[in-house]
Design brief:
By secondary structure, the chain is of the alpha/beta class. 18% of the residues lie in helices and 27% in strands. It is built from 7 helices and 16 strands.
Length: 301
């Protein structure tokens, strides 16, 4: 379910993951870095207060257009959050006891954790024949908000732009509640790019998953520029050209573009991506969602 910007709800067997929750409205502002602000141009498809029960949050990085102040103040403190070490510091370690999120899991690149909710809690239908437990394996994927080279080194020192993750989300089962995480079997694989550019670190993904199909990719686009599109000194998310390059590298069965027109710092609109896809002849590999649309898929057993 596409809420807007990078915010989606992924539902599988009664388990719901919320990605990069951002629920401010058109005209609201967010702080994106030293001297940089962004204005939201759209409304989310659903308001924060209208969400169904959420079992966990996937937070690619600690930026206000992915985790705004309203979200940070409103979410229950024991809601599991899977994120970066940098974001965990801000959400857990750097907060007072009554403000901190208590169930934060930080994943570095290619580290994994399992999200599993017993059927009686999640509402998932029980399987009397196998007693299998639905589970979701989340693995941190490489991502960089800044280009490789001198700018990346400088940002590491200045910490102007936060570190970011992508995710590999695998939907499947454990044989029973007590089974180890290693017993998880995958039935559907989703790659979420996160806010990244086409950097060398991404080349490791197709190597690691060379013999494993990636069924769906959610790609963050927009060509986000700072300090603004009127003064585009630095691009920090993929534009249309890089989005197509990522499709060629990852080779998913289906790609859904997100994060492309919700803020005034986006320089590369969805129309640019559509043109690049048409030029590449890949129209049948892309699904376009409006805010509020759903994409349904089948998970193998």
């Amino acid at each position: 379910y596409f809420v807007g910007t990078a915010t989606t709800i992924l539902e599988y067997e009664g388990i719901r993951l919320l990605s990069d929750p951002n629920f401010i409205h058109a005209g609201d502002h967010v702080h994106l870095g030293p001297g940089v602000t962004g204005t939201r141009m759209t409304n989310p498809a659903v308001d924060l207060e209208e969400l169904p029960r959420i079992d966990a949050v996937l937070l690619s990085h600690y930026h206000a257009d992915h985790f705004d102040e309203k979200v940070e103040s409103s979410l229950r403190r024991d809601l599991p959050i899977v994120t970066t070490p940098h974001a965990k510091h801000h959400l857990h370690e750097n907060k007072s006891d009554d403000e901190k999120f208590t169930d934060v899991y930080d994943l570095d690149f290619f580290e994994s954790c399992l999200v599993s909710v017993p059927p009686e809690k999640s509402g998932a239908a029980s399987n009397s024949e196998t007693s299998k437990i639905p589970a979701i394996k989340v693995t941190g994927m490489p991502g960089k908000h800044v280009p490789d080279g001198a700018l990346s080194v400088a940002n590491d020192l200045l910490a102007a732009v936060p570190p970011t993750n992508g995710w590999m989300v695998e939907l499947g089962y454990k044989p029973d509640v007590s089974a180890p995480d290693s017993a998880f079997t995958n039935g559907y694989r989703i790659y979420i790019s996160g806010d990244t550019l086409m950097v060398d670190d991404l080349k490791e993904i197709p190597k690691r998953y060379a013999d494993q199909k990636i069924d769906l990719m959610l790609v963050h686009l927009g060509g986000t520029t700072i300090p603004s599109p009127k003064l585009p000194l630095l691009m920090v998310t993929m534009d249309a050209k890089q989005g197509v390059q990522l499709m060629q590298m990852i080779n998913p069965e289906v790609t859904i573009p997100i994060h492309y027109d919700d803020y005034d710092v986006f320089l590369s609109p969805l129309s640019d991506f559509k043109k690049a896809i048409n030029d590449a002849g890949w129209q049948d590999k892309v699904v376009y969602l409006e805010r509020g649309d759903q994409y349904r898929f089948s998970v193998g057993t």
